[in-house]
Amino acid sequence: MTELVLTVDEAAARLRVSRWTLYDLIRSNQLRTIKIGRRRLVPADALAECLDQLSEVAA
Fold first, then answer.
1. Where is the Helix-turn-helix domain (predicted)?
2. What is the DSSP letter of 56?
3. Where are the domains of the chain?
4. pLDDT tens digits, residue range 3-54?
5. Most buried among 6, 21, 32, 58, using CB within 10 Å?
6. C-alpha angle 49/3/14, rounded to 5°?
7. For residue 8, which of 31, 52, 30, 28 has the smallest C-alpha distance?
8. In whole angstroms, how far apart are CA 12 and each of 35, 55, 59?
């Protein structure tokens, strides 16, 4: 089964970027996240959305 949500570290590893870069994407509203309690989680489908958005800007 595929994960529905990823931790910040897992999402950074999947995108092959640092935690700092991932938090920059979150702060700039390019990466959608959710909060459950004190934890910030990244929905798995938000990674694809972010990559699509970034590739449109780069094109």
1. 5-53
2. H
3. 5-58
4. 899 999 999 999 999 999 999 999 999 999 999 999 999 999 999 999 999 9
5. 6
6. 55
7. 31
8. 17, 17, 23
Tell me if 9 sits within 8 A of 19, measured CB to CB.
yes
Q: Are 5 and 34 in contact (CB under 8 A)?
A: yes
Token digits of residue 54: 């970034």
pTM: 0.86
How much helix, strand and coil, in percent to the nearest 5, is found in the chain?
55, 15, 30
CA atoms in the 13 A half-sphere facing the CB of 49: 12
